[in-house]
Each structure stands twice: as structure tokens, then as C-alpha cells.
Amino acid sequence: MSLGTAPFLRASHWLRRPVAVALASGCVALVLSGLAVLFTSSIREQALSHHHADLAMQATLLALYVRDVPAEERPAALRRFHGALGEHADTVLGLLDGQGHVIAQYPDRPPLQGLAAALADRDHAGTTRVDPGHLGDEVERLAAHAYMPVTAGAMAASGPPGMAVVAVPEIEVSGATRRDQLIVIAAAVALAVIIGILGGLLARKARAAQEAAEQLGRREVELRQLFDHATEGIYRSALNGRILRASPAMARMHGYDDESHMMALRDTDRRPWFIDPERARVFFETLLRDGVVRGFESEVCRRHTGERFWAMENAWLVRDAEGNPTFFEGTVQDVTERRTVETNLRRAQADAEQSSRTKSSFLANMSHELRTPLNAIIGFSEVLEAGIAGPLTPRQAEYVGDVLTSGRHLLEVINDILDLSKIEAGHLDLAEQHLDLEELLEDCTAMLQPLAARKGIAVVTPHQGDPTQAGPSLLADQHRLRQMLLNLLSNAIKFTDPGGRVTLGWHRRGDGGLSLAVSDTGQGMSAEEVEVALIPFRQVDAALSRRHEGTGLGLPLVKILVERHGGTLEIESVKDRGTCVTLNFPAWRSQPDKAA
């Protein structure tokens, strides 16, 4: 938790319980309201006492005023006296007899009638009639019993006997006092409720603020942990490049022990960050123009040790409220190892490409150097075998036949190697044309028929000679397609025992494409052996390689050539039962059958 939030949380600890706050607020409000009631009652009692004194003075003066006034003129005298009261004009003046009957009053208002009713109730209860000389005191006692602030003055002895002069306030002061007290209490209760509600809301807000502060503190701790344990360097820098903050990884990247060590020496170690000043210029121009720099790789310098290394930097510009740049922040990753690996890979690739070019150049030169004498050997052997130069003895004919066979085999090996090198170098071009498939299949079987006949193997073409099964036209390179079929047929004859059968045919697939298949009843292969057979210069079995001639380039070349035609190669083989190799060509290379 940050130091800035701790005092607030300690000060608001008591606000964590909204119910307690509400009850405490209500109690405080009730105490204040009670004090207000007591204070109001005291003031009202003092005011009432002064008012009673005023009423007594009025009654005394009125008694003197009406003492010598005849009975029939006394109502008019009350009216004149009332008009002379001025600011006390809210007083009701009256004359009552010993039974409490109102003889005369002015003005005619309810307060005096309430006093008369109280006197009448006294008589009905059998109360002894009061001495006329003390009638004023009895009136005051009854008025107080009736909760009416009445002050009476006794009449002079020379006046009519058994009468009292009464002055009654038009507003019932004591009743008003109680109402005021009730109003104050009600207001105090309402104030207590309002204070309680406000206290509860305040407590809730304080609790929410506390939770927000705690969450902020947790996030601060989490961010600090991320900052301290990040493997990449994290920094904040002034626009002039002076480091303001640095993570531990960033400090170590510059050769310092920690951030404090770096801050202490940042003005002493003035080595530039970028080795190349041009990279520094590009970095700051991009940052000020775009506000962000991503994946910026440069050779940089550790400011404390001066060691060079490669770094990838991401940075972003921070602006103030007016949009002015204030500083920038970023991350730095040491990519020296990756750069070294990439450099080595590029060097290895360059070496490999150079080796490939050297090999291609060697093979191109060797193709001429080998083919020229080899063609001469083959040509002269064919002349001798044909007897053009004269007849040969049986032993000589045998030797010439061996030389011719070996020369042709060596020429095939050289051609396969050259073809593979061309394909690897990307120099193999296809001379495509529409071919008569039936005619091409017939030529291929005819070329290998003598070899199959010597081994006692039958070569079958199911569609040959059937006019209803005339072959379609295929768009392909004639030389490469013949090369593929001859490779497959020669392999089938090579690995099929005498008495076996080799089949060459075609069929149209459901998607409209065309497939050519070569199958045999030979030795077959397992799934693992099929994978080995597709690797250049690899053969399935060393024993077979000794029994049969070959370089292990036949199937790999066929696979590459059919894929260059946009097709695929499929091999289905069962050990000791035979193999079927299928060349699948896309539909756009095949035209409708000629019979159609």
C-alpha cells in the first residue's frame, strides 16, 4: 500500500461500519434536540412571566378604570380601555361574577369562554363559593388548571360585590409553547434521521473510497513487482536522453548494480547510447513524428562499462494536457544472441548457396566432360556390335555387349544426377504440349519389352488395341512424362521375379483428372520402406542394391516431375505381393477422350 493512502485509511477506520455511524449520528441529533427544547422552554417561561406581569398590570388598571363606571357603561369602558392598550391589543378583557359568568368582555373571543367553563365546572362539583375579595386569586388558579395563562386583578371594595376584572391573551401561550416544543422535537427527530442517512451514505462512500484505495494499493504492488521482475529493460527518459527511471533489468543492461546506482552515476557516465549517430537521429525523428517507435534494432553501448551489444527498443512519447512532449518511455531487449544466430544462419545459407552453385557448375562442366567420351564409347560399341567394322568372335561380341550395357547405365546415372541438380537449382523448364496418351504408352512398353522378355515377365496394357477405350490427350512435357513412365516400368521389371506381370494403364477420376498407374506382382515394400525409397540416393535394402543396378534416384525424380506438372504421386505396396505407383494429373491438363 502506498504511503499516501495510509493516513486516510487510519482516519476513516471508524467509518467502516455504516449502521454504527447512523446510530451515533441519531443520538447526537437527539441530544442536541433535547438541549434545544430545554433552552426554548426556558426562554418561553421567561417570556410568559413577563407577559403575566403585563396582564396583571392591565387588570389592575382596568379595575381602577371601571370602578366608578355604571354597570350599563362598563362594556363601552372595556372597549375604550382595550383600544388604549396599543401593542397589547391581542388581550381579551372581561368582567366575571362569582359563578364565573361573563358579565362583559371585549372583544368577544373564545379564551374568556374557556375560563367561564372552568368556573362553571367548579360550581357543579359542589365547590364552596369563593369570598369575593379573593375571586381574582381563584380565577388565576382555575385558569392555570385549565392551561390558560390568565392574570386577574381584584376589583375595589366600593365596586359591585363578587366581581373580578380579567385580562386573557387571545393566543394560548402555554399551548403554543407545547406545540413549539413538539415541533422542535419533531424537527430534531427528522434531523436525526437525516443525519443518520447522511452518515450511512458518508460511511458507504468512505468504505468505497477505502476499497478503491486498497485496490489501488494492490495494483501498485503488482505493477511494482512487474517492474522489478521484468526481464526486459523498462525506462523513462527526458527528451534529451537523460534517464529518469529505470527497472532493475535496465540498470543491469547498462552495467549498474541497480536503479539507485544508475541514478547516482547518470551524469558522470556520458557514453552515448547509440553507437551510430545516424541511428540516434532516425530514432528521435520517428518518435517525435509518429509518437511511437517499434522494433528499433541498433548496436548500442552500456553506459557504465562501455561494452557494445545489440538491442531492440520500443518507445512511446508522453505529452502533457496541452499536447506538448514531456518525456518518453520504452522497453529494451538484448538481442545480441539472436543477432549472432541470424548472422551465422545467413553465413551458412550463403555458404550453402555457394556450394550449390559450385556443385551445379561442376555438374554442368562434368556433364560435357563425361558425356562426350561416354557417347563416343557407346557409339563405337554399337558400331562394333552391329558388325559394321567387321565380324566379331563370340567372346569379342560378349565384351562389346558388356561395354555397351555399362556405358548406357552410366549415361542414365549421369542424366539422373544432372536432372536432380537442375531441379534443385530451379532450372528445370517444362516444354508442354498436348500428347496422345495411348501412343506414348505404346512407345514406352515397346522400349522395355525386350528387357521384360529376357526376365520372362509379361507387360500388359489393358486399353491397347481397344477402339472404345482410346486414350485422351494430356498436356505435359513429352520427354519428362516418358522419363517418368520408363523409370516406373524399369523399376517394376527390375523388382519382379520371372513369371510375374507388370501392368501399365490409365483411368479418369471422378474430379475429371487423369491417372496413370504402373503395377507389378513383385517384392513389394512396407510403409517404412516406401518412405526410404522416396529419399534421393537411398535404396530400400542394401542386399537389393547389390542384386539390382540403380542409384536410388528413380522414385524421387518421378515424384518431383509429377509435382512440377501440378500432380501427385501415390504408392500402394504390400510386402511380397507387389506395388502400384500412380501419377495423378489435374483435370485442367486432360482433354476429353478421343472416342467421345
Would you write up a description of this structure?
- With 596 residues, the protein is α+β, with helices and mostly antiparallel strands.
- Among the domains are: 230-334, 2-Layer Sandwich (Beta-Lactamase); 341-422, Helix Hairpins (Orthogonal Bundle); 430-593, 2-Layer Sandwich (Heat Shock Protein 90).
- 54% of the residues lie in helices and 19% in strands.
- The chain has helices spanning 6-11, 18-66, 74-84, 110-124, 135-145, 173-229, 248-253, 259-265, 277-290, 336-386, 394-425, 437-455, 478-494, 527-533, 542-547, 554-564, and strands at 91-97, 102-106, 151-154, 163-169, 233-238, 243-246, 292-301, 308-319, 325-334, 432-436, 458-460, 472-477, 501-508, 514-520, 568-574, 578-585, 590-593.
- The strands form 4 sheets. It has a 5-stranded antiparallel sheet, sandwiched between helices.
